[in-house]
Design a protein that fits this description.
By secondary structure, this protein is α/β, with parallel strands linked by helices. It has a single domain, classed as Alpha-Beta Barrel (TIM Barrel), CATH 3.20.20. Helices cover 40% and strands 15% of the residues. It has eleven helices and eight strands. The chain has an eight-stranded parallel β-barrel, surrounded by five helices. The chain is globular. The N and C termini lie close together (6 Å). The mean pLDDT is 97. This is Hydroxypyruvate isomerase. One of its GO terms (molecular function) is hydroxypyruvate isomerase activity. Belongs to the hyi family. It holds the Pfam family AP_endonuc_2.
């Protein structure tokens, strides 16, 4: 496995054009981009290439001051907005080579749950047709209720229910250990539940979302068990450093010493 940098979380204090260089200087080979829409897609492709970074994942666009503040996929009546946003995400994928798109479901407070699920199913069915033609994998990520109140799913089992219904290798779980811990879940149990469905893994330290402490919450054992559970790819560093990203990376030393990450 290999660590990748979330450019916004680790380097959000820097101007956009400096984040790529900072990630490369800190030894990262891959990058997640939450909202790569401030510049044209080719700009992000050039920035990644200039610093030898692989595009690992990006999110579909959000609109903070609208019903789509956390995405549109599960918002009833938001089909047109979802398709527009998904097409923008596809353009970034085409330019950068990123193969994973996190499909943001949305803040569903005030909407009927069944209507939200129907909207999500319809939008994913449409998006999966494009994922097949574009060689993409779509990610569903549960977000904990303390940080993201109203998000359509907050437990892995809820997202897995959607994933299993489609039974497509193009739809996978974004397994974020931080969100699981914030929901009070047992990581070993959740990993077993999610076996075979994980398409990307992210981690941070709970409760404050700083560097992970591998001695807490079963983090070390969970990361160690990922390959046996069918996942041996990127580990997304999605946290706010206590000081600098470079200084904080000491948290990963035990993983390197055990040969778990390259």
């Amino acid at each position: 496995m290999q660590l990748n940098a979330n450019l916004e979380w680790l380097y959000g204090h820097l101007p956009l054009d400096q984040r790529f260089a900072a990630a490369a200087a800190d030894g990262f080979a891959g990058a997640e981009m939450l909202q790569p829409y401030e510049q044209p897609p080719a700009w992000y492709a050039d920035a990644l290439k200039a610093h030898g970074l692989t595009a690992v994942l990006h999110n579909t666009p959000i609109r903070p001051d609208s019903p789509g503040r956390l995405g549109w996929a599960a918002i009833p009546g938001g089909q047109a907005e979802f398709r527009e946003c998904f097409d923008r995400a596809r353009a970034v994928a085409e330019a950068t080579g990123s193969r994973r798109i996190h499909v943001m479901a949305g803040d569903c407070r005030g909407h009927d749950e069944r209507a939200c699920r129907q909207a999500l199913d319809q939008n994913l069915a449409w998006a999966l047709r494009h994922a097949e033609s574009d060689d993409l994998v779509l990610m569903l990520e549960p977000l904990n209720r303390a940080d993201m109140p109203g998000y359509f799913y907050w437990l892995p089992e809820q997202a897995l229910d959607v994933i299993r219904a489609f039974d497509s290798p193009r739809l996978r779980l974004q397994f974020d250990l931080y969100h699981c811990v914030k929901e009070g879940l047992d990581l070993a149990q959740e990993l077993e539940r999610c076996r075979g469905f994980i398409g990307h893994v992210q981690l941070a330290g709970a409760p404050d979302r700083h560097e992970p402490d591998l001695s807490r919450d079963g983090l070390f054992a969970t990361v160690a068990a990922l390959p046996a559970a069918g996942y041996d790819s990127w580990l997304g560093c999605e946290y706010k450093p206590r000081s600098t990203a470079a200084e904080g990376l000491i948290w990963a030393d035990p993983l390197r010493q055990q040969g778990m990450i390259r």
